[in-house]
Specification:
162 residues, alpha+beta, 3-stranded antiparallel sheet, 5 helices, 22% strand
Length: 162
Amino acid sequence: MIELLNELNTSIKELINKWHLFLNSECVSACGIFVELKIDPKNWFLNPKEDIRSSYFLEYVATEFDIQGLELDWTCVAWDADFRFLNQDWDYFRFIGKNWQKIRDIDNKLYLKNTYRVLLTRARQGVIIFIPNGDENDYTRKPSFYDETYEYLKEIGLKEIV
């Protein structure tokens, strides 16, 4: 996990500045993050920390559609392999069927980039970024899908939380 301390590089700085919540992606379910479950916004945002349906419990994931236009004190983003830092630049993927496929259409790339912008601009005080380790035995979650992004975020000043 990484805690945001600084802004990111020029192209991604515009996306990030203060950051996040949870990501709409398929492969983080192996880490116990199930995006398919829908939240009840009233319960998720307003219920007290004693209520399992509230955001305090981290049992339910909010997507960019659930949190657009809202601000929270602290947030956490699960950064999946759809938006990867590869070869000194950002690369865009979509999980279709049983494989990751490169996004080539400029509008679809901008949509994905905007998804991260929404997720990364919800926090007022701070954000935790969760990047999975990946699994060599799972071709959909290879460590190489995550490693460069993780290393890049550390390189630009994000603090690793062990």
